[in-house]
Amino acid sequence: MKISVITATWNCAGTLGDCLASVAGQTHAEREHLLIDGGSTDGTLAVLEAHRAGLAVLVSEPDGGIYDALNKGIGLASGDVVGFLHADDVYADTRVLARVADAFADPTVEAVYGDLAYVAKEDTGRMIRYWRSGAYRPERLRWGWMPPHPTLYLRRSLYADFGVFDTRYRIAADYDLMLRMLTRMTGRVVYVPELLVRMRVGGVSNRSVGKILRKSWEDYRALRANRVGGLGALAWKNLSKVPQFFRRG
């Protein structure tokens, strides 16, 4: 079971080393790591070149943003399964990809996801929020539920069937893609009830009031476009985040 891990980078030299080491340290050997850089100028390329031996693909060129970069990675991936690890993030332990591969050993499984921890930017051991995903049920989508995208792995064939990230969304293309996949795929969706990824706080979607408002508008558009729900689902989606601040696993 070959797993493709795609990382999009842009001026992230300060955290990228942790991400690269996290992938390189995985016990699941049948994997490839694809790095798609947007033309960084801060030393990111020097970090990537230092780790070049561990990368299956390294591309550095101007792009149209993170979703355009991730789409490039999908197009270059050769694995049976595709997942993403952002440059600020790390796996929870060395056996994350092994557990993902075990779940995909069942040929009827098309998607696998787990839990996500939001951690402090300077200390990935300090937890801010814990996102316990819970088991998948299709009806939960209408209540604003979604799996944490950084923990989601999909069979590569699904991208050929249902498309890649819609770059008309600037912040919520991941939500749109998950809704599109989950409402159309016919295979099983498996929840691994363990922490899979530690994600540093400070993402683009919550850096300002303007970004938050734009994300809510894009989330609403995604819900409507995929015929999942509307304002009610959007409200529940946002309210569901509150308990994450009180969980620690």
Short description:
This protein has helices spanning 13-24, 44-50, 66-76, 96-104, 157-162, 173-184, 209-225, 231-239, and strands spanning 3-9, 31-37, 57-60, 81-84, 90-91, 109-120, 123-131, 153-155, 188-200. It is 33% helix and 24% strand. With 249 residues, the chain is an alpha/beta fold.
| Major sheet summary line | 9 strands, mixed
SSE string = EHEHEHEEHEEEHHEHH
Number of helices: 8
- Computed over alpha carbons, the radius of gyration is 17 Å
Structural class: alpha/beta
**CATH homologous superfamily annotation:** Spore Coat Polysaccharide Biosynthesis Protein SpsA, Chain A
Q: Which descriptor suits the 3D outline?
A: globular
According to DSSP, the number of beta strands is 9
Find the CATH topology.
Answer: Spore Coat Polysaccharide Biosynthesis Protein SpsA, Chain A
Low-confidence stretches: none
Q: What's the pLDDT, averaged over the residues? A: 92
Measured as a percent range, the helix fraction is 25-40%
Strand content: 15-25%
List descriptors.
249 residues; alpha/beta; nine-stranded mixed β-sheet; transferase activity
What's the layout of helices and strands?
Blueprint: E1 3-9, H1 13-24, E2 31-37, H2 44-50, E3 57-60, H3 66-76, E4 81-84, E5 90-91, H4 96-104, E6 109-120, E7 123-131, E8 153-155, H5 157-162, H6 173-184, E9 188-200, H7 209-225, H8 231-239
Parallel strand pairs: 1-2, 1-4, 2-3, 6-9
Antiparallel strand pairs: 4-8, 5-9, 6-7, 6-8
Helix pairs in contact: 1-2, 6-7
